[in-house]
Design a protein that fits this description.
rod-shaped; 3 helices; 149 residues; mainly alpha; 89% helix
Length: 149
């Protein structure tokens, strides 16, 4: 009976050890799974943010390109209206129109050459580009006001 009792105690102890070992493994697996869920959620959030940034850039670029195209049209119209009967642009406006045209080309190049360098760089680029675009728009508007006099 002593042997039976010893065997029974040994079986119970082994069973307890197995359960404790399995519980530790299950706890580790649970912790790993929770970390994987957190990482996956972060990846989803990052992908959403990246997608939103791409959408914002695409929309911004399309709007800027439309403004640049409109500026090209305005400049071409100025050139046509300020050309004398011999086909020459009036000298006093020639350089002004060339400067405005070059500014518009520079804005197009700046837009085309933009590289994504993070949110702060994007905000700075957008602010500077908008400022330059507004400045050109004002110069074009003022150019017509000067010509109407």
């Amino acid at each position: 009976m002593k042997t039976l009792g010893t065997c029974l105690i040994a079986v119970v102890l082994l069973s307890l050890l197995l359960m404790v070992g399995c519980k530790k493994a299950a706890d580790k697996n649970l912790a790993d799974a929770q970390q994987n869920v957190v990482a996956a959620q972060q990846n989803v959030n990052d992908a959403k943010a990246q997608s939103a940034a791409v959408d914002e850039w695409t929309q911004y670029k399309a709007n800027a390109e439309a403004k640049i195209a409109e500026n090209d049209k305005i400049i071409a119209d100025y050139k046509a209206r300020m050309t004398n009967s011999k086909g020459k642009l009036l000298a006093k406006y020639d350089k002004k129109v060339d400067v405005l045209e070059q500014q518009n080309k520079d804005l197009k190049a700046k837009l085309d050459n933009y590289k994504d360098n993070g949110k702060d760089a994007w905000e700075k680029f957008k602010s500077e580009f908008d400022h330059d675009m507004d400045g050109l728009g004002t110069a074009l508007k003022n150019f017509t006001v000067d010509n109407k006099k």
